[in-house]
Amino acid sequence: MNLKQLPYILTIAAAGSLSKAAEELNVSQPALSKYLADLERQTGMELFMHQKKRLYPTPAGKVYLEAAREILGMQARTRDSIRLLKNPCTTELHIGISPHRGAVFIAQAFPKFSQYFPNVRLIPHEGYASGLKDMLGRGMIDLALTTMASGMGVLPLHSEEVVLAVPSFHRLAKHTFESISTLPFIDLADCRDMSFVMPDPASSLYEAVRPSFDRAGFQPLTAFSSPNVIMAESMIRSGVGIGLLPAHYMVKNPDITYFRLYQPPHLTACILTQNDHLLTDAERFLIFLELQNSASNPNYQIIWSEPLMEIVREFDYTHYFSHFMES
Fold first, then answer.
1. Rounded to whole angstroms, how far apart are CA atoms 186 and 266?
2. What percentage of the chain reaches a pLDDT higher than 70?
3. Range with the lowest mean pLDDT among 40-54, 117-131, 145-159, 293-307?
């Protein structure tokens, strides 16, 4: 593997097309096409397949992508370890995150965070909402980035709609996914005779969707239950049942499609702290980075409050958020 070019294949996978990836990487599309062709010739297998004008990793491509992520992660950790020998950390920031979105956010935010706060060691602790709340109560973490909970200091960040996901071969699936604004609506009561892939009863997603079933007048027939949204989405694609997923997890995949509910549930992402906790500069900057990440996601609606606007005014030197706050 060429270490310098490993980000190329990761960008191709994330963008879903060579043209978009070439634009993000600031290279020509012919050069990127040649890179991929050379790579597939070297491995002796196709790494991507075309479906509905989008590139999807093949099984071999998924293996290669996972290896690329591990190698780049090891490279970054090695570089950071060497840098810390020269500039030893003076403080530690323990943050609770989810195993999926939270982990991705930390990976994206870490380079800029460490640049601004080189003497703060960022230590992530993975868990689901109830577990993170328990860690916070026992003093294991300083704050948590999670979905809405109660009983402790809460700073709401953004809200997202929960949608109904069905496998493509299901009798309801008569359309393709473009964006959440183009999805057809469905009455959840019409799904009372169907099997569901449900979130774990202890999860915040379960708490969010439970009132929808109460309004629809039935309790779902649960074929499978898990707090892991990635696993639930995979179960839905394989035909185990239909299910309710946060809009963030919608993907353009031929194996799955989505509906909006007439009275959709919502999840609220928030910063969870102890009630008497005063946010440090490093914590406030991390929240600012999460806001930047949220603003780029069309499925998120930022919940503006005076504490959030203070954080933006503190770190938004380019005034990126000015039009968001005005609207």
1. 16
2. 91
3. 145-159
By the 10 Å C-beta count (0-12 exposed, 13-18 middle, 19+ buried), 138 is classed as exposed
Structure tokens at 75: 């490279």
Which range (3-12, 77-86, 98-107) has the least confidence? 77-86
- Which CATH number does 91-157+269-326 carry? 3.40.190.10
Q: What is the mean pLDDT of the chain?
A: 87
Per-residue pLDDT band for 74 (boundaries 50, 70, 90) equals confident
Domain 3-68 has CATH 1.10.3720.10: no
Pull the structure tokens for residue 276. Answer: 């008497």
Cβ-in-10-Å burial (0-12, 13-18, 19+) of 208 comes to: buried
Determine the angle formed by the axes of helices 281-295 and 101-116, rounding to 10 degrees. Answer: 130
CA distance linking residue 85 with residue 315, whole number of Å: 28
User: Do the two domains 3-68 and 160-267 of this chain adopt the same fold?
Assistant: no
Terminus-to-terminus CA distance in the chain, angstroms? 47
Q: Where are the domains of the chain?
A: 3-68, 91-157+269-326, 160-267
| 253 vs 103, higher pLDDT | 103
Q: How far apart are CA 290 and CA 327, in angstroms?
A: 19
* 171-196 tens-digit pLDDT: 888 776 677 888 999 999 999 999 99
Dihedral sign for Cα 215, 216, 219, 222, please: negative
What crossing angle do the helices spanning 18-25 and 6-15 adopt, rounded to 10°?
Answer: 130
pLDDT at 184: 92
Q: Domain 160-267 belongs to what architecture?
A: 3-Layer(aba) Sandwich (3.40)
With H, G, I as helix, E, B as strand and everything else as coil, classify residue 119.
coil
Cα distance between residue 294 and residue 132, in whole Å: 21
